[in-house]
Amino acid sequence: MGKGGNQGEGAAEREAPMQTFCWEEIQKHNLRTDKWLVIDRKVYNITKWSSRHPGGHRVIGHYAGEDATILPGMPFPHLALLNLSGWWGLRPSQSCPVSPTLKDAFHAFHRDLDFVRKFMKPLLIGELAPEEPSQDHGKNSQITEDFRALRKTAEDMNLFKSDHLFFLLLLAHIIVMESIAWFIIFYFGNGWISTVITAFVLATSQAQAGWLQHDYGHLSVYKKSMWNHVVHKFIIGHLKGASANWWNHRHFQHHAKPNIFHKDPDVNMLHVFVLGEWQPIEYGKKKLKYLPYNHQHEYFFLIGPPLLIPVYFQYQIIMTMIVRRDWVDLAWAMSYYVRFFITYIPFYGILGALLFLNFIRFLESHWFVWVTQMNHIVMEIDREPYRDWFSSQLAATCNVEQSFFNDWFSGHLNFQIEHHLFPTMPRHNLHKVAPLVKSLCAKHGIKYQEKPLLRALQDIIRSLKKSGELWLDAYLHK
Question: CB 3.0–4.6 Å: which of 143, 273, 393, 429 could bond 420 by disulfide?
Answer without folding.
Answer: 393
